[in-house]
């Protein structure tokens, strides 16, 4: 590989903090950043899950890792996680706000019947926690005068769901409050980018489409059929390039952007 390309994507010696980095898409983000040379702090609500992944990444990529237990809906807990990362590595160059998800709680699929407490929890998980992490790490990055904040939003924040795709497979589609929270992450990204740009910090979002994991065959077929590239996203593969691009010098003039990684699903009708 030519030196010019290596320089664009080299993250040697940088420090990345990835929330929910122990599994699935968070693990993909942590893996590609470790492969590019980052020292990696990764969080999970369960410290044992974080430890297991941290050990695996250290062995695979020969980099330093730090496992942290974190509930990012607790602002004080977030401050502690950031302090732990700073005391171990001295700085934070990349934050990946990945922790989140579709359907916590026991709410029924429709907004009309959903328990308000479940709605509150889902918004805290997908939006408030992202704000807390961006607030705490943004402060550190502003002092450094550099940094990259990447938040994993969703195409649910961009387009409405066609519930008919879910019905034949008897699947619960993601909630209306999930769409609201993810749209909030995209809005937050733009305003935070404006606020942090003078400090040399780039703030961007990634909006994945559906990634396939233990889903009914019929749903995968129906969803793939509605996707220009003809398939769902692949864990371990399809998110990594977007994360590496937004974390690396290759994207130094990109901020306030929402990079959609969905095989074309959200623009095709
Ligand atoms: N999988 C998809 O198809 C898809 C599509 C679009 C967007 N996303 C988004 O990508 C991100 C990762 O999705 P995934 O499918 O890998 O999800 P996942 O459920 O496998 O992982 C979510 C991670 O968040 C962590 N987490 C959950 N609650 C937390 C809390 N209160 N505090 C801290 N961490 C917490 C979990 O421990 C886990 O590591 C999420 O933000 C999700 O909304 C996923």
CATH T-level topology: Rossmann fold
Q: Which architecture per CATH? A: 3-Layer(aba) Sandwich
User: Tally the helices: what do you get?
Assistant: 8
CATH superfamily: NAD(P)-binding Rossmann-like Domain
What is bound: which ligands? nicotinamide-adenine-dinucleotide
Tertiary shape: globular
**Which sheet architecture does the biggest sheet show?**
7 strands, parallel
Spatial arrangement of strands, main beta sheet: 3-2-1-4-5-6-7
Write down the CATH class: Alpha Beta
Question: What integer is the average pLDDT?
Answer: 95
The rounded distance between the terminal residues' Cα atoms is 39 Å
Domains, number: 1
Outline the structure in words.
The chain is α/β, with parallel strands linked by helices and 269 residues long. The chain has a single domain, classed as NAD(P)-binding Rossmann-like Domain (Rossmann fold), CATH 3.40.50.720. It is 43% helix and 14% strand. The chain is built from 8 helices and 7 strands; from the N terminus they run αβαβαβαβαβαβααβ. It has a 7-stranded parallel β-sheet, with helices on both faces. Helix 2 packs across helix 8, helix 4 packs parallel to helix 5 and helix 5 packs parallel to helix 6. The chain is globular, with a radius of gyration of 18 Å. The site of nicotinamide-adenine-dinucleotide (NAD) has 24 residues, from helix 2 and helix 5. The site of nicotinamide-adenine-dinucleotide has 24 residues, from helix 2 and helix 5.
């Amino acid at each position: 590989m030519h030196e010019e390309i290596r320089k664009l994507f080299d993250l040697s010696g940088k420090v990345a903090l990835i929330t929910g980095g122990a599994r699935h898409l968070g693990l993909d983000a942590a893996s590609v950043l470790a492969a590019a040379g980052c020292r990696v702090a990764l969080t999970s609500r369960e410290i044992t899950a974080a430890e297991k992944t941290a050990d695996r990444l250290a062995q695979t990529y020969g980099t330093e890792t730090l496992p942290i237990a974190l509930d990012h809906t607790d602002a004080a807990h977030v401050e502690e996680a950031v302090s732990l990362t700073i005391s171990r590595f001295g700085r934070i160059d990349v934050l990946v706000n990945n922790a989140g998800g579709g359907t916590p709680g026991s709410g029924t699929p429709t907004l009309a019947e959903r328990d308000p407490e479940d709605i509150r929890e889902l918004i805290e998980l997908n939006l408030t926690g992202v704000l807390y992490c961006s607030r705490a790490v943004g402060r550190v990055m502003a002092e450094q005068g550099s940094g990259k904040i990447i938040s994993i939003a969703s195409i649910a924040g961009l387009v409405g769901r066609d519930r008919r795709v879910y019905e034949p497979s008897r699947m619960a589609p993601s909630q209306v409050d999930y769409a609201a929270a993810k749209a909030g992450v995209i809005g937050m990204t733009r305003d935070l980018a404006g606020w942090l740009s003078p400090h040399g910090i780039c703030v961007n979002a990634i909006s994945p489409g559906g990634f396939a994991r233990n889903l009914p065959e019929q749903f995968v077929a129906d969803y793939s059929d509605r996707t220009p590239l003809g398939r769902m996203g692949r864990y371990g593969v399809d998110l990594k390039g977007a994360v590496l691009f937004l974390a690396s010098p290759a994207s130094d003039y990109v901020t306030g952007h929402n990079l959609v990684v969905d095989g074309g699903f959200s623009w095709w009708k």
